[in-house]
Amino acid sequence: MSAITILPYLPGDAPACAEILAALPDWFGIAEANAEFLRNLAEMPSWLAHLDGRPVGAATLRQYYPSSFEIHFLAVHPAFHRQGIGRALVEHLERQARGQGGDWLHVKTLAPSHPDPFYARTRAFYTALGFSPLFETDALWGPENPAVIMIKPLG
Prior knowledge:
This protein is α+β, with helices and mostly antiparallel strands.
């Protein structure tokens, strides 16, 4: 397997990121939300995972409090799932958060009370990387889309 390279997001990366989102309709199927994710890539600290020079994943880190960071956005092109790209992006975000004094990394995703099989895979991914569910709420996205907040201590 080729080496995964994580590079800072640049404005010229927007078309590649839009392509990644378009390839993931089971996770990113709302056009307005996708447009916001693309804006956030340019406005928040963001990185792209490259494989053989091709952007295949992207992630955005958001800081809410001095010691608390959120994986605001993470997407890997489905043709490259299960190749360590998502893990490499999360590990990069962990290093970034730790380097800024972060004690906690958290992520919001669709809760297990929702039967969506794609988000079950998302939760399994984060669990495998050491995240634990903290609580479930319908206050963020409404009762039809309950959210679970998952956390990981950065030690």
